[in-house]
Specification:
Blueprint (H helix, E strand, L loop, with lengths): L2 H18 L4 H24 L4 H17 L8 H32 L2 H32 L17 H23 L10 H8 L11 H12 L11 H15 L3 H12 L3 H14 L10 H23 L30
Helix pairs in contact: 1-2, 3-4, 4-5, 4-6, 4-12, 5-6, 6-7, 6-8, 7-8, 8-9, 8-10, 9-10, 10-11, 10-12, 11-12
Length: 345
Amino acid sequence: MRSGGAVKFIATAVIFLLLAGCSANPIYSTTGAVLSGYSEGEATPYVLQMSDPHMACSLGEGIDPLLYSFSRVTDAPDTTGSLLMLLAGNCMEYRAWEAELAYLRADFEGNVPAAKDAREEAKRLNAKTAARRLKAFNRAMAAYEFDPSAEPLECPFLFSEQDELTFLLGLLTGMQAIVNDANSGALAGIPRNIAPQAERAAICVDNEKWGGLPNSIRALVWLLLPDSKPPLSPDPWAVLDHSSELGVKKGMRASMALEAVAAETFGRPEVLAQTIAQFAASEDKVEVWDDYQLVDEVAAAVIRFSSDKHWTANYGHRTPQSYFGKMSPKRDTDNVETMSLDDLL
């Protein structure tokens, strides 16, 4: 079903339900089941193929309340619901990003009141982002009846690639919720035990198939909680670097976004600069996995925001397009060939 037809279908269903009144509970249940099936079978694959993260996140904010309103009369579609809330969390984070850039610009200009105001706005938006992402994590775990704290660990049965990705993104979203909460000053109160739970659960998904993302999640947890690192495991930074390379090969560069976040979180400016440069260099050679293009596009947005933060803090503005991949306006003239004026005489 094309997106235009889907919108007409949903609009017709909603109007019909409003006209039907309170006596139409069986119709509510039937419509809810149809919407859940459509969302799982058609809407989710369509959204994952999108190349516009902002439009996708708007879909999450708009459709999630409609879809979950039917959970009063039928089972909640937690698989699709996890993705929808993930997208809604992205929308809130994009607003938090703008507030943070506003803070950095005001700080660069020495405008203290504006800087304080923007910083407080960023904290509040990060708290809302964290709350949405916690809900996405919980939905993903519920969808596959997975208890991340169970001993011993029992991996869920994942029927399809879409299930594997939904579960994996649920784990990643749980980790992101912790980071957002930290950026908010712990306003959202996100449980920190999500981190070791995500580290354990990440082994349930094939690392190479998904571009190193499972191991990137594990490496990030090892940096956050060094005691969680298994004996004889490689250095977390080496794991992140290898995962980023694997992500380029697989056409899904989410691992690179995690490496950038880790570099910012743990004060590794050289790693951040290298990751941004590698991402920019990969643009001309990466073959993005078409079925999951949205994941790569979201990763690209994270990388560009990391670059924009650096440029705004140091130069007062976002990264100029022609300088994406560089950390300063200085041009690289080492390999530029120059013409001798003597040759013209």
